[in-house]
Amino acid sequence: MDGMAGQKSTLVWVVNICAFLLVLLWTIPTLGLFVSSFRDRDQIANSGWWQSFSAAEQTGFVRTGTDDDAVQEGGLYVIEGNVTEGDQTLVAWGTGARDPARFQPGDTTEIEDGWQLTVNADGSYRLTSPEPFEMRRGERIFTTTEVPPKFTTGNYQRVLTAEGLGRAFMNTLTVTIPATVIPILIAAFAAYALAWMEFPGRAILTAAVVGLLVVPLQVSLIPLLRLHNEIGIGKGYLGIWLAHTGFGLPLAVYLLRNYMVGLPREVIESARVDGATEFQIFRRIILPLSFPALASFAIFQFLWVWNDLLVATVFLGNTREQLVMTGVLRELMGSKGGEWEILATSAFISIAVPLIVFFAMQKYLVRGLLAGSVKGG
Amino acid sequence: MELFWLAISTIAIGVFGCVAWFWGSNMVLDTIYPPKGPNAGDNIRKANQIRPWLFLGPAILFLTMYLVYPVIDSLWRSLHNSTGSRFVGVDNYTWLLGDGKFRESMRNNMLWLLVVPALSTLFGLIAAQLTDRIRWGNIGKSLIFMPMAISFVGAGVIWKFIYEFRAEGETQIGLLNWIVTRLGGDPQIWLTLIPWNNFFLMIVLVWIQTGFAMVILSAALRGIPEETIEAAILDGASPLQVFMKIKVPQIMGTIAVVWTTITIVVLKVFDIVFVMTNGQWGTQVLANLMYDWMFRGSPDYGRGSAIAIVLMILVTPIMVWNIRNARKEVR
C-alpha cells in the first residue's frame, strides 16, 4: 500500500489498537470465568474479578470487650484486643456508622467522659477509662481493611468430588469417544463410494446428504425417543451413541466426500489397473490420504458431542449418576445460582477439554470449516 | 472405571463391527462374483454394481433411521393428538397460530434471525480484515475463534456472570453492571429487562459465531486477486473504499454462505435460552418451546411435533439453496 509514510504508520496504529480492543472484548468473558474459578467464595461475593489482582477493601465493624475484659493499669481501666483477623491490614477506622473511616490507624479519640480509644495499624486497639466501665455490650469500632489478593484451587477439589463433576466428566468422555469414532468409519466408506464409484443415483444421494445437513435436530427427538423405547434401547449410552452417529453423519459424509473428490485421479485409476480391489484402494490409498479431512471431522464431532446438552438430556437419563457435564452445569445454574465459585469452576472444567483440543488441533478445524463452507455451501 | 471399559469395548465392538461389515460383505461379493475365471468381465461388472451399496449401506441406514424417518414421523405426529392415538388434522397448527407463547417464539426467532447472522458476519468481517493486517494476527484470530470451542451452556454461565446483578449500593460483581454503575447509571437485572433481554441472549451467540465468520471470511479475503486491489489503490482509493467497494463485493458469495450457515444455527438455538432464562420474561424461542411441550408436565407429542415441523419448514429454503449450489458445483 503506498500513500504517505506518516499516514501509513497512523493507520497501522489504528489497526493494531482496534484489533487489540476486539480481541480483548472477545477474551474478557472467558478470562473472568477463569480468574473467578480460583478465587474464594467471600472474595467473589465482595469484589469483581477484575479487582482480584489488587488488594480488596472490606468494611465491617467489631465490638470491643466489655467490663469483664477490663484490667486495671495504674489507675486506668483498660480493654485491649484486635480488630483485624487473618491477613487483613487496617486502612481506616471510626466509631460511628455515619463516618466509619474517620480515623487513621494510630489515631486516638475520646468517646465519652474520659474514655480514650486508640486503634493501631496492626489492628490492636486500647480503650481506657479513669472509671470502671459500665457497659453490657462492647463499643463498636468500624473498620476498613485490606485483604491481599488470594487464589486457591480449593474450588476445583470441591467441585470435582462433592458436586459430582468428576463422575460427569467420565460420563461425558464415555459418550463422546464412541460417538466420534464410529461415524468416521461409516462416513469414510460412504464418502468414498459417493466420490469414486460409478452407480445410478449417486447425484441424488449426494444432494440428499447436503439436504440432510440442515435438518433440525429437534425434528428427530420425539420420533427417535419413541423408536428407541420400542426397539428396547431405551435411555442409555447405546441410544446416545447411535443418535450422535446419525446426527453427525451428514457432515461427515459431506466433508469427506468433498475432500476425497479432490484426490488425484491417476493414483486411484492406476491402482485399479493394477488389479487392486476397491476395498484395498480404500484402505491403502484413500484413508491415509484423507487424514486431514478425517481429523477435521473428528474435531467437529468431538466438540459438538462434548458440548451438546439437548441430545444428552433427551437420550440419556437425568439422574445424578447419568448426567454429562453440560447437564450438571445446567442443574447447578438452577440450584446454585448465586454461588459463582462453584459455577465458574464447573464451567471451566467442562470447557477445558474442548479448549485444549481446539488450541492443539486448530489447523484441522480451520481446514474443515473451509472445506465445509467455502467449497460446498 | 466400569464406564471406561464400557466405552472402550463399545469403540472396539463398533469399529470391529464396521470393519467386519465392510470387509466381510466385500469378500462375500467377491466370492459370488469372482473377478477371474470364465466370466471375469461379467462378474466384475456385476460386482461393481453392487459394491457401492455395500459401502453406502450403513450410512444410508443411519441417515434414514435418524433423519429421514423422524421428519416423516414428526409430520405424522403433528397431525395427531398428544399421544398419537387420534387423527386431528391441522388442529395442532391452528392451535399454534392462536397460542401466545408460539407467537412470542416466532417473533423472537425472527429477531434472532435478523440480529445474530448480521452482527456475527459484520464482526467476523471486521475481525478478519484487522487481523490479516497485523503481525500478531494469528494469535488474535485464535482468541476470537476460541468461543467456538465453548459449549452453549458454558457460554451461558460465562455471560450470566457478566450480567450478574447486585442491589444498588452493593459492590457489583457482574462486569456490565459494574461499568454501568461506574458511569453513573443504576444496576439492572439485564436478563429480565423486557424486551432488551433478548438482545443480551443474542450477544452470547454472536460472541460464539463471530470466530467462525472470521475464519471463513479471512480465507476469502486472502483469495481476492491482488491486481484488483492494486488497481484501486493506484486510482487513489482510500483503504476504506478499497475494503467496501473492491473487497466486499468480491466475497459476497462467501458472505452469503457464512450468513446462511449461522442462520441455521440460530434457528435451532436452544441451549442458551434454556439455561439462561428458560424462555421466561419474553425470551421464548421455538426450540425451547418445543422442548417444553415434549418434556414438561404431561408431554404433548402432537403439539411438540408441530413446532418441530415449523422449524423444518423454516430451514427448507436454505436446504434447497444449498442443494442447488452443491449440484452446480458437481457439474
UniProtKB/TrEMBL annotation, chain A:
Coiled coil: none annotated. The keyword Repeat does not apply. Keywords: Cell membrane, Membrane, Transmembrane, Transmembrane helix, Transport. The keyword Disulfide bond does not apply. The chain crosses the membrane at residues 12-35, 175-196, 203-225, 237-256, 285-306, 342-361. Residues 169-361 form the ABC transmembrane type-1 domain. GO terms for cellular component: plasma membrane. Belongs to the binding-protein-dependent transport system permease family. This is Maltose ABC transporter membrane protein /trehalose ABC transporter membrane protein /sucrose ABC transporter membrane protein. It comes from Paracoccus homiensis.
TrEMBL record, chain B:
Pfam families: BPD_transp_1. InterPro entries: MetI-like (IPR000515), MetI-like_sf (IPR035906), UgpAE/MalFG_permease (IPR050809). Residues 106-322 form the ABC transmembrane type-1 domain. One of its GO terms (biological process) is transmembrane transport. It is a multi-pass membrane protein. The keyword Transmembrane applies. It is found in: Cell membrane. The chain crosses the membrane at residues 6-24, 53-72, 110-131, 143-162, 199-221, 254-281, 301-323. Keywords: Cell membrane, Membrane, Transmembrane, Transmembrane helix, Transport. GO terms for cellular component: plasma membrane. Belongs to the binding-protein-dependent transport system permease family. This is Maltose ABC transporter membrane protein /trehalose ABC transporter membrane protein /sucrose ABC transporter membrane protein.
